[in-house]
Amino acid sequence: MKLTYYGHASFSVEAGGKHLLFDPFITPNGAAKDVDINQIPADYLLLSHGHGDHVADAPAIAKRTGATVIASAEVAGWMEQQGSANNIGMNHGGKKSFDFGTVKCVNAVHSSGLPDGSYGGNPMGFVVTAGDKSFYYSGDTALTMDMQLIPRWARIDFAVLCIGDHFTMGYEDAVEAARMVGTQTVVGVHYDTFPPIAIDREAAKAAFAAAGIRLLLPAIGETIEL
């Protein structure tokens, strides 16, 4: 699988011959000023929750690409109101098959409100399986014991975890999350975008290394092979 990082908690994964784009917050993010959202391919758009720093560019990308949106029922409904044509509302515990593989919606401990102030449903994470590989995206979340269930559903080749603290778990808790889901490779997201979530990158890498886990912090626009 190839993962491209677009800043904050936005990234895409090439899986099963399709482009899966997660939580696009690019245009309002000054650190991602060199990323042109009109050049980002998307067959599927997965939205973990309704906060503006996760859905800001979702309507524009969905309308341009015709991507299928996978989100909570409330976020999927909001996307339809914004002009997105293909929307699949799901909820915690639900699993669905697609032409690239499967998506299972899992618990996230956070909040969710949409940019217009309407109810954003429950925040969630995703377990994605395509062929013989699976990965876990935590979405915005605190560390939760529910993460121990994830290895029962799939062998996690890598996890995309928030590490910025303040609004989500920090890198210390993300180390425990990686242990719970049983992965040796983590891509860190949701850090350094705003002052409250600035991190010491070397300290974060050292904390993961001490646990025998590799922490990857790709540059904005960088593509890595996983």
Task: Describe the secondary structure blueprint for this structure.
Layout: E1 2-5, E2 11-15, E3 18-22, E4 44-46, H1 52-55, H2 58-65, E5 68-72, H3 73-81, E6 87-90, E7 95-97, E8 102-107, E9 124-130, E10 133-137, H4 150-153, E11 158-162, H5 171-181, E12 185-189, H6 201-210, E13 214-216, E14 223-225
Parallel strand pairs: 3-4, 4-5, 5-6, 10-11, 11-12, 12-13
Antiparallel strand pairs: 1-2, 1-14, 2-3, 7-8, 8-9, 9-10
Keywords:
28% strand; 226 residues; alpha/beta; RibonucZ/Hydroxyglut_hydro; UPF0173; single chain; Metallo-beta-lactamase, Chain A; 7-stranded mixed beta sheet
Could you walk me through the main structural features you see in this protein, from its secondary elements to its overall organization?
- This protein is of the alpha/beta class and 226 residues long.
- The protein has a single domain (2-225), classed as Ribonuclease Z/Hydroxyacylglutathione hydrolase-like (Metallo-beta-lactamase, Chain A).
- It is 20% helix and 28% strand.
- It contains six helices and 14 strands.
- It has helices at 52-55, 58-65, 73-81, 150-153, 171-181, 201-210, and strands at 2-5, 11-15, 18-22, 44-46, 68-72, 87-90, 95-97, 102-107, 124-130, 133-137, 158-162, 185-189, 214-216, 223-225.
- The strands form two sheets. Strands 6-5-4-3-2-1-14 form a seven-stranded mixed beta sheet, with helices on one face. It has a seven-stranded mixed beta sheet with strand order 7-8-9-10-11-12-13, covered by helices on one side.
- Helix 6 links the parallel strand 12 and strand 13 (214-216).
- The longest helix is centred in the last third of the chain and has 11 residues, at 171-181.
- The chain is globular, with a radius of gyration of 16 Å.
- The termini are close together.
- The relative contact order is 0.16.
- The mean pLDDT is 98.
- Belongs to the UPF0173 family.
- This is UPF0173 metal-dependent hydrolase GCM10023184_26120.
- InterPro entries: Metallo-B-lactamas (IPR001279), RibonucZ/Hydroxyglut_hydro (IPR036866), UPF0173 (IPR022877), UPF0173_UPF0282_UlaG_hydrolase (IPR050114).
